[in-house]
Amino acid sequence: MTDLSRIRNFSIIAHIDHGKSTLADRMLELTQTVDQRNLKAQLLDDMDLERERGITIKAHPVTMYYTAKDGHRYMFNLIDTPGHVDFSYEVTRSLAACEGAILIVDATQGVEAQTVANAYLAEGQGLAILPVINKIDVKTANVDEVAHQIEEILATPASDCYKVSAKTGVGVQELLEALVHQVPPPKVTNDRTRALVFDSEYDSFRGGITYVRVFDGKISKGDRIRLLGTGNDYEVKEVGFFNPGLVPRPSLSAGEVGYIISNIRDPAEIRIGDTVTQARMPSDQPLTGFKDVHPMVFSGIYPVDTSDFEKLRFSLEKYTLNDSSFTYMPESSVALGLGFRCGFLGLLHMEVVQERLRREYDIDLISTYPNVVYRVHRTNGQMEIVENPTRLPDWTEIDHIEEPMIKAFLICQNEIIGDMMQLLMDRRGVIEKTETLDSRRLMLTCVLPLNEILIDFHDKLKSVSRGYASMDYEHFGYQESDLVKLEILVHGDPVEAFSSILHRTKAEGRGRQLCEALKELIPPAMFPIAVQASVNKKVVARTTIRAMRKDVTAKCYGGDITRKRKLLERQKEGKKKMKQIGRVSIPQDAFVKVLKTGVG
Question: Cis link prior to 244 (omega < 30° from 0)?
Fold first, then answer.
């Protein structure tokens, strides 16, 4: 059992690509947690996807031991966190298990939008914050200006900033000493055992692995534990630390961070934010976990091969154990078969989930056009929540529709302010205020619909700013808007997979794009096929797939012209009849190509 005064629990938080994982590498190296031969860049980023994209997707805990200058040996429990706005929930969960946070700012880029957001998250949890200016070894580093930005924006004295180079290790030793003196040790507040579940994963051989921070008491191998959220009891098969792999120990005591392996076979039984206690002497006071996260983007996920549906269902069950911010529910589509309606925190989150399902569970997927959650007010006074365009009531029954709004904070260079404002206004944004950060950059605060940033907003933002702009956003309630349902009709039949809810001013343009795309992808039949875009039962765009022409006169040799005319008239009558009773079958690859390329 480690003395509580010798334990320090902290997270590393920052904007994306400011050096969190690199600093964690240097700490692992200096504390000799990992052998030099096993050390590699971004050691805690153990997913191939994280290494390929150069981003942290999952929070990664690790336990280190550090002998300080005062001669005492301290236990450091570090949780490396993601930086992208879509994974801010991972940051919140990590901070709930800590007493301190290292806030990293890149010396070449300065304070970014997510830096501010993460600083507010840490302050809200009441954590001790250590501001760190990283990459001081880079030639373009402007340490003094960045320290001034931290003082102006985050209200932290410039003299309190630690200057380090995570790549070379300069200043990291001083930072480790600062953790000893500035991060408070954990405190025991209850005489009964209580541990907070802040993450989990599923192992096909050992079942659910629960990541916990023990606040009170002790959990040992062989104990009977209870999850207060479900009320279920389990036997502890193994407990231990992260070093950074799983290292078994006899027990976990108050203040320590580690894992519990018990006889949990159903992934749904583990709830992130739940409290673990002893079954024989349970605590009746659950720990304050973290607020329930609400998905902001919805999309349908279907297996390309319909026989993979059960495999997809089981894969989603296991995946939710590793990502509690992801939600799903079964749904079916005439075009795509059985699948699931899935909720995500943002577009990058959606991309990462789909890519992880493909890689980790070997499933080929199709995803439908992403949508947000709308509030539909009917003419009879009732209000409905609609996240799927196919469930939108008939337009004659709708009084008005409210769409989710976001408050966005964009940091960009002074010279592109005009282009940035134009981009925001094109996306129906309203700019509330403009603040000057320093001689080169300013911050725009604006309100705009969440639906407008779903597809290509981030790409446009980066191209306008040549990669220098950054954005963070928060949910900002709902606002009434002139929204309509766009339907695509093929030979008069609506195709559910291409339905979407969007602003009236953009419906016609989106409809034309989809009609043109389908004209190229749907194979011609023996009769002309009309492809139409409809808004509130009114056609706003149309294109026609020409009929295949069979040469019925090819075998007509010689004779009078009336013989040929007779054959052509009969073909004309047949096509007319076929047009009335014929049905168009849209090939599966047409759905895949339109949905994967994001046409519209």
Answer: yes
pLDDT greater at residue 54 or residue 146: 146
Interior/surface letters 556-578, b for 16+ CB within 10 angstroms, e for the rest: eeeeeeeeeeebeeebeeebeee
The 8-class DSSP code of residue 437 comes to -
Q: What is the percent of the chain with per-residue pLDDT over 70, rounded to a whole number?
A: 80
Determine the Cα–Cα distance for residues 535 and 506; give it in Å rounded to an integer. 11
562: which residues sit within 8 A by CB, 6+ positions away?
none
**Structure token digits, residue 104:** 């990293």
Model-wide pTM > 0.85: no
Alpha carbons 508 and 486: distance in angstroms, whole number: 9
Q: What is the C-alpha separation between 506 and 449, in angstroms, rounded?
A: 13
Amino acid at 264: I
Q: Which residues contact 571 (CB under 8 A, 6 or more apart)?
A: 550, 552
Cα-based distances in Å from 391 to 331, 371, 376, 545: 11, 12, 11, 29
Contact 28, 224 (CB under 8 A): no
Q: How far apart are CA 216 and CA 366, in angstroms?
A: 46
More confident residue, 30 or 265: 30
Residue for token pair 């007319």: 576
Can you list the domains of the chain with their CATH numbers? 4-182 (3.40.50.300), 194-278 (2.40.30.10), 297-367 (3.30.70.870), 375-475 (3.30.70.240), 485-597 (3.30.70.2570)
Mean pLDDT of 72-93: 69
Q: What pLDDT band is residue 586 in, cutting at 50, 70 and 90?
A: low
Per-residue pLDDT, 24? 81
8 Å CB contact between 485 and 386: no
What are the tens digits of pLDDT across the range 84-95? 555 556 667 677
pLDDT greater than 80 at residue 190: no
Record the tokens describing residue 581, joined without a space. 């009773």
Q: Are 216 and 192 in contact (CB under 8 A)?
A: yes
Which one is predicted more confidently, 531 or 323? 531
Q: How far apart are alpha carbons 388 and 298 in whole angstroms?
A: 8
| 78 pLDDT higher than 70 | yes
Specify burial of residue 339 (Cβ count, 10 A radius: 0-12, 13-18, 19+): buried
The full DSSP string for 55-98 is: ---S-EEEEEEEE-TTS-EEEEEEEE---SGGGHHHHHHHHTT-
What DSSP assignment string belongs to 107-163? TTT-S-HHHHHHHHHHHHTT-EEEEEEE-TTSTT--HHHHHHHHHHHH---GGG-EE
Query: Contact 112/471 with Cβ under 8 angstroms?
Result: no
Which helix (H) or strand (E) segment is 404 a member of? strand 398-413
What is the rounded CA–CA span in Å between residue 38 and residue 560?
89
Q: 529 near 548, Cβ under 8 Å?
A: no
CA dihedral 242, 243, 247, 251 (to 10 degrees): -60
From the list 27, 16, 30, the residue with the least C-alpha distance to 81 is 16
